[in-house]
Amino acid sequence: MAVSTTGEVSGSARRGRRVVLWRHGQTSWNVERRFQGSTDVELTGTGVAQARRSAGRLAGLKPDAIIASDLKRAAATAAELAALTGLHVVHDEALRETYAGVWQGLTHDEIIARYGEEYAAWKRGEPVRRGGGELETEVADRAAPVVLRHADKLPEDGTLVVVSHGGTIRTTIGRLLGLDPRSWESLGGLSNCCWSVLGEGARGWRLMEHNAGSLPEPVLGDDT
């Protein structure tokens, strides 16, 4: 593969490719602040509208390929973009959200009340199996190679749209940028149906947009 999981690019790599990592639309558990993890929760009506509106914008990037988590909320979001572009969506369970064991289905307040020390350790950047589930590095281990494999198939200056989940997107970005896992939390979260954009440069992948809701603009200035 031309691009490694640390974000390094070999001399034979095609340059100028772009990866758009798009979070799914709103679900009822998002509204209730419940930890979804790998639970298969559907979009709300608002979530469908968000996906449709965002798809209209992302279609303007003329993506070459779409891949998505197979969970309903991501698959339904991806379907809106597929309908506009005519592209086939490749679903992969490796793009699912972090499995979080007994945390799944609990509200944020319930997690703090029952597993406060575990939650605090995770926020400090310590490797924690939240609820007895996956480590963040394990999520990156399964998701990042899928993204890289599909990005490697892009033409020069091509665009891949990855429809996934907030936690999985953050860990994937951290891995592709070569960041220390303890700092991945510093990337911040994504709002429903917002996206981040990674661009391929001379020294590997770089973060071009984060938690965006409009199409990326060219960077004007010295550091391009």
Q: What can you see in these coordinates?
A:
It comes from Streptomyces erythrogriseus. This is Histidine phosphatase family protein. Pfam families: His_Phos_1. The chain is an alpha/beta fold. Helix content is 33%, strand content 16%. It has a six-stranded mixed sheet with strand order 3-2-4-1-5-6, with helices on both faces. Strand 2, helix 3 and strand 3 form a beta-alpha-beta unit. Helix 2 runs parallel beside helix 3 and helix 5 crosses helix 6. The two termini are 26 Å apart. The N terminus is likely disordered.
Question: Could you name the key traits of this structure?
Answer:
224 residues, alpha/beta, 6-stranded mixed sheet, 6 helices, 6 strands, globular, disordered N terminus
Helix-and-strand structural type:
alpha/beta
Q: How helix-rich are the residues, as a percent range?
A: 25-40%
Strand content: 15-25%
Number of strands: 6
Going across the major beta sheet, what is the strand order? 3-2-4-1-5-6
Our Rg estimate from Cα atoms comes to 17 Å
Distance between the termini: 26 Å
Which residue ranges are poorly predicted, with pLDDT under 50 across at least 5 consecutive positions? 1-14
Please state the overall shape, judged from the principal axes of the Cα atoms. globular
Order of helices and strands: EHHEHEHHEHEE
Number of H- or I-type helical stretches: 6
How would you characterize the largest beta sheet?
A: 6 strands, mixed
Arithmetic mean pLDDT: 90
Pfam family, one: His_Phos_1
Protein name: Histidine phosphatase family protein
InterPro entries: His_Pase_superF_clade-1, His_PPase_superfam, PG/BPGM_mutase_AS, PGM_Phosphatase
Organism: Streptomyces erythrogriseus
